[in-house]
Write the structure tokens for this entry.
Amino acid sequence: MKIAVKNGEEILISREDAVSVTDKGGAYEVMYADETGQLVYKGEGVEIILA
């Protein structure tokens, strides 16, 4: 699936190979098809868009 992470108008992450997004409390864990992962910390103005 496509994922975009924005902070206001600034795009922080834009990928098309997201496999899962898991809520870990203070952050979201994003896993990708190439078996890598990334944490996206929750904060005011941070928006995750899935398509």
